[in-house]
Each structure stands twice: as structure tokens, then as C-alpha cells.
Amino acid sequence: MTGDILVFVEQRAGSVREVSYQLLSKANQICAELSVRLTAVFIGPKASFLSSDFYKKADRVLVLEDERFGDFNCEIARDVMVGIIKEQRPAMVLVGHTPWGMDLAPAIAAKTGLPLSTDCVDIKIEAGKVKAVRQLYGGKLFARVVFKDESKGCIFTVRPGSFSVEGYPDRMGEIVPIEAPKDLPEPSSRFVEYVDTGAGEVDITQAELLVSIGRGVGEKERIEEIQELARILGGVVSCSRPVVDKGWLPKYHQVGTSGKSVKPKVYLALGISGAFQHVAGIAGAGTVIAVNKDKKAPIFRVADYGVADDLFAFSDAIKKALKK
Amino acid sequence: MDIVVCVKRVPFTQEVDLEIDRSKRFVATESLAHVINDWDSYAVEEAILLKEKLGGEVTAVTVGSEDDEEVLRRALAMGADRAVRIESGGMPMDGTVVAGILASVIRNIPCDLVLTGVQADDDNQAVVGVTLAELLGLSHAAVVRGIEVSGADIVARIELEGGVDEIRRLRLPALLTIQTGINEPRYVSVMGIRKASKKELKVIDVKELGLSQNDLVPPTEIEEIYLPADTGGAEMLKGDPSVVAEAVIDIMRRKGVAL
Ligand SMILES: Cc1cc2nc3c(=O)[nH]c(=O)nc-3n(C[C@H](O)[C@H](O)[C@H](O)COP(=O)(O)OP(=O)(O)OC[C@H]3O[C@@H](n4cnc5c(N)ncnc54)[C@H](O)[C@@H]3O)c2cc1C
Fold first, then answer.
1. For residues B124 and B110, what is the distance between their CA atoms, to the nearest angstrom?
2. In chain A, where are the structural domains located?
3. Are the beta carbons of A291 and A283 closer than 8 angstroms?
4. Residues A87-126 pLDDT 10s
5. How many Å lie between the alpha carbon of B5 and the closest alpha carbon of chain A?
6. Minimum CA distance residue for ligand 1 atom 5
7. Where are the alpha helices (DSSP H) in chain A?
8. Residues 6 or more apart from B84 whose CB is under 8 A from it?
9. Architecture of the CATH domain A5-177
10. Residue A60 has pLDDT above 80, yes or no
């Protein structure tokens, strides 16, 4: 493998997203292993990153500064990436497994015909063969994925939080302005605005104890029992996404990538399976205690303490113990 | 507004010890209960809601075996007008191959909008939707949790991270991958599903689609499926619920939570 490792950098409203640093960190390691160059692609105003150290993490940053594309436009990003890939033939392309990355990476793959592996938690090179590690069934199983033919390059989306951004060396940090492809068609979609889904009556990010409800609670009617548990414990109620999706609790209770990141001293997860989008939100929690009747639930791999039991039996036992 | 919605039948794996077969490349799912992929049930509901508001027809499509017709019948019972199953003959497929198969069929179904789920519950890939859009030349958006049709455009509310949504305007025809929570999928009874069996359910064999060998060879391949390492997980608290409760209360106090 001789081509560059190409990283698509996500920026929103001018600031580089955390996931992009994680991609650069992994790319840095692969580049060292293969002795190839690390090239980052940035679409947006250059001024927005010059004050950060992001560009030093790559050998080169290809920067497309164009007032038309200040905000993410998937078609533009796709066409720019496809152009670079065709011209420079990178060995690998790394994109974040984020809502935008989920939109962009399959589009690049379809246009270039390069193979794609998504939501990877690791990328390895074993005996010259590229292998992606990813999860199946919401984290119950792992799979090692290989490509039929990676000789022309391959594309990965990388799960946020998979790679540490600490302790990797700076690189050349050369900034290379690029131009939009000449024949760029008028995109069929355009950015309108960002909307904050807003704060609510309680702020789960400030709580010391979160009593968090998952789909395992089963039905809306039984949420009250857990709210009571939270009251007795002096904690605040939070929840996983399906609980919000079903309208059982308002959105501002939701923990996870599309909800809030929390940092309680203790996080009590009741009937939550432990999908990465949820777990990403509790990285800052002091101690995680999980209750799940499935002893194989992935949440037990990230929790500090586990209870393999029915959450209502657990809740009743706590209530009883505290009444004593 | 004519809509095509793609659905997948997935195994239900909660509280199930998943068994990896001897080749270590497949999971034995035959004996498990199956359900419609969670994301897809929201996509079907959204298609039906749009049809109820704007008129038009909804076609549900799946790639799979006869057993997978179960999810098409559910879509029909929810209100889809017709369904298409593409018989895959059990060949190995990844997201790219499935998208290719779907594209060759949907290309011939006149429609303004294609909906899929964000991802499937089993392989969690999030590949089919956007790949399909590209193959059909449609504009697309992933992870959509709100839709409004406005003239020749569709306005999608895309869920980004951390409670921020992006509003994006797309020209029709378009493909959107639908996020859970966008609506409340309606309940369908066994009776409803039985009644819907009168609606058209067409079966097309993948061999009739004229796809080349190249289109049908998955570019990705699972080398090995394995269980996560047993080490490094939670310390399991065992015993009678009252003993466990005391232990948990003790941990909370030690960690500085005032009880
Ligand atoms: C783009 C995107 C963004 C997302 N963002 C988020 C997010 O911000 N936050 C989030 O939480 N999810 C998010 N998700 C969804 C995520 O992938 C999972 O689907 C979700 O976290 C699952 O929630 P859960 O654990 O409550 O439900 P499930 O996965 O259904 O798990 C329920 C658990 O409860 C257990 N259980 C059932 N009954 C009982 C009982 N009586 N007692 C004890 N245990 C019981 C079961 O064994 C199971 O483990 C997102 C997904 C996508 C694609």
C-alpha cells in the first residue's frame, strides 16, 4: 500500500468536530505503520482552524474555501472527495460514522466503486491485508470484515469514540488550497439552518445521580415506578432513545450521541442494552451500575457494576432497603 | 406523491445467546423470532402518513426469502398499496449488493420519494439507503426525523449530534433514511395482516433482473464473527435482591451520592 490515508474532516459552524481528531489519530498510526502520507480534506473557511492544532495532525490539509460551501453539503463533499480520490488514489479513506458521514461515505463508495465498511471500531493491517473490526446486533457480537479487492483503495466510517486523541505526534501540517471541480453541478439539496432541540425543565447534565430508563421498562405506565425510585434516591431521571421515541419521556431526558452527554457521580442504567450511541453519552460518568435481565447485554462490558435481574425487582428491593 | 419504502426482516435477539456457526462467518438465526427492523417500521409509517396527507401510492419492497414476506404483509396492513419481494435465493449479500438489487427494481417503479430505515438492527451498517439513492441518482439525506413536502422540494429535519438538527431542502425525487421517533408506527392486528393478504404481493427472482456477476459479488466479506472478550466488564453483584440492593446503596454512598 503506497497511497495516502485520506481523512474527511467534519466542521460545523466553523469548528472542527471531535470525531475528526479521532480519525486523524487512527490515520496517524496507520501512516506510521505503512510509511505513507496523511492527507486531510477540509471544506470550509480556513480561518476556522488556523487557531486550532488540527492541521498539524496531518501532513497536508487540502482546503476548499468557497463561500458557497460553508455549511456541509453532501453532494459537494462527495464530488470533491471523488475528485481527490480519482486523482490521488489514496490507500484508505476515513470518514466519521456520524449523521453526515453516514450520508457521505456510501455516496463516495457508490461513485468511486471502492469498497466500504461502516461503523468500524478498529482498522488493522495483517499480512498486508486491511481488516475492519465492527459490531453486529447492537454490540452483542464482533465481526472482522475484509474486502474482496482493496487494491484501488477502500473506505471506512469510524465510530466516534473509538480512538484516543492523546499522545500522537504532529506531522508536517502543510496547508494546500484546492478548488472546487470545474464541472460541479448545482446541488439538488441545500442547507437551510440548524435548530437546537432545546433545553427542558430538568438538566440531566448537572445531576450527581442519574436513574436512567431504557426500553426494558416495557411500557409507559411503569415509568412512574422508576420516577419514584429516583425521588427516593434523590436522583434525576434520564433515559435512552427509544423511551423518547415512544413519547414516554421528553427529549431533554435523553442520554447519548443524539441526546446529552452526562457526567454524574453514579449512573444507574435500568433496562438499557448498551448501544454505542447511548454509551457515548456516559463516558464522563464516575461509576456506572447497570441492571439488565440479559446477562449478556453489552452494557455490562462498559459498566463498573452489574446486576443481572429484572429492573422492577431491583427497584423494589432498593426502595425496601431504604425504607428500613 | 408515490412512495417506495424498503423494509427488512431481522431476528429478535434480546435475551438470546447468539450462536456463531462452525464456519465462524454466520450467526444461527433460523430458530429466532423475527420482526420488522425497528427503523423500517418508522419508514413505513412515514410513507403512509404522507400518502394520507398528499395522496398517491405506497409500494413496500424487500430483498429476501418467502419468510421475509411477513414484513411486507405488515407494511400492507399498515396501509401500503402493494408489495414486492425480490427472491435472493439465499446468496451472500452485503449492503452494496442489496442496494444494487433494490435499484434495479425501484428504477421501474415511478415514484417521487424513496424511504428506508437509517440502519438495520442486525448488521448495523447504514449502507443500503444512501447507496440506493446514488444508484438511482436521487438526492438524499440520512438520519431524518422530520419531513415536510413543499412544492417540488422536500424539507428534511436531519438529526445531528448533541440535540442539534439540520434543516435541509432537497429537490424531489429524493431518498431519505428514516430515524426512529419520527412518528408513532400504528398498531396492526393479526386480523389486519390477514386482511391485507388480499393486496398485491409480487415476487421477482433476482435472476430475472439482468444484473451482472459483478453486481452480485459482495465487495465486503465477513472473515470471522466472534464474541466480545469476557474480561474487563462489570463486577457482577450476585445474590438475593435485598443483598444486591444493600450492595448498590453502599456503592452509591461510597461514590459520594447523598442518600
Ligand atoms: C444515528 C443514531 C443516533 C442514536 N442516538 C441515540 C442516543 O442519543 N441515545 C440512545 O440511547 N440511543 C441512540 N440511538 C439508538 C441506539 O442505537 C439503540 O437503539 C438504543 O440506545 C437502545 O435503547 P435501549 O437500550 O433502551 O433499548 P434496547 O436495545 O431495546 O434494550 C433494552 C434492554 O432492556 C433489557 N430488559 C428488557 N426487559 C427488562 C427488565 N424487565 N428488566 C431488566 N432489563 C430488561 C433487555 O435485555 C435489553 O438489553 C441512536 C441510533 C442511531 C442510528
1. 29
2. 5-177, 204-323
3. no
4. 999 999 999 999 999 999 999 999 999 999 999 999 999 9
5. 18
6. A258
7. 18-34, 47-50, 74-88, 99-112, 223-233, 241-245, 276-279, 299-302, 311-323
8. B59, B60, B61, B62, B72, B105, B109, B201, B202, B203, B204
9. 3-Layer(aba) Sandwich (3.40)
10. yes
Contact status, residue B175 vs residue B114, Cβ threshold 8 Å: yes
| Helical packing angle, A311-323 and B241-254, nearest 10° | 70
Q: Which atom of ligand 1 is nearest to the CA of A272?
A: 25
Phi, psi of B16 (to 5 degrees): -115, 135
- What are the tens digits of pLDDT across the range B59-87? 999 999 999 999 999 999 999 999 999 99
Report whether pLDDT(B181) > 80.
yes
* Segment A223-245, tens digit of pLDDT: 999 999 999 999 999 999 999 99
Asked if the Cβ–Cβ distance from B184 to A308 is below 8 Å, we say no
Which residue is closest to B180 within chain A, CA to CA? A245
Domain A5-177 and domain A204-323 have a common topology: yes
Residue pointed to by grid coordinates 386482511? B195
What cell numbers appear for B223 in the block?
472473515
Length, in residues, of chain B: 259
Contacts of B223 in chain A (CB under 8 A): 131, 143-146
Q: Does A283 touch chain B (CB under 8 A)?
A: no
With a pLDDT cut of 70, the percent of chain A lying above it is 100
DSSP-derived 3-state class of residue B12: coil
| Crossing angle (nearest 10°) for helices B128-136 and A99-112 | 50
Q: Give me the domains of chain B, ranges plus CATH numbers.
A: 3-216 (3.40.50.620)
Span B99-114, pLDDT tens digits = 999 999 999 999 999 9
CATH topology for A204-323? Rossmann fold (3.40.50)
What whole-number distance in Å separates Cα of residue A208 and Cα of residue A287?
A: 11
Sign of the four-CA dihedral B251, A290, A238, A313: negative
Cell of B1: 406523491
ipTM of the complex: 0.95
Pocket probe for ligand 1: among A100, A240, A289, the residue whose CB has the most ligand atoms within 8 Å is A240
Task: Give the pLDDT confidence of B191-249 residue by residue, as tens digits.
Answer: 999 999 999 999 999 999 999 988 999 999 999 999 988 777 999 999 999 999 999 99
> If you search the block for the grid coordinates 415514484, which residue do you land on?
B111
Tell how far the Cα of B102 is from the centroid of ligand 1, in angstroms: 29
User: pLDDT tier at A323 (50, 70, 90 boundaries)?
Assistant: confident
Give the three-state DSSP class for B224.
strand
Instruction: List all residues of chain A from 138 to 167 with a beta carbon under 8 Å from chain B.
Output: 138-149, 160
What's the mean pLDDT in A276-297? Answer: 95
Which ligand 1 atom minimizes the distance to the CA of A255?
9
In Å, how far is A137's CA from the nearest CA of chain B? 5
Reading the block at residue B253, the C-alpha cell is: 454512598
How far apart, in whole angstroms, are the C-alpha atoms of residue B10 and residue B121?
7
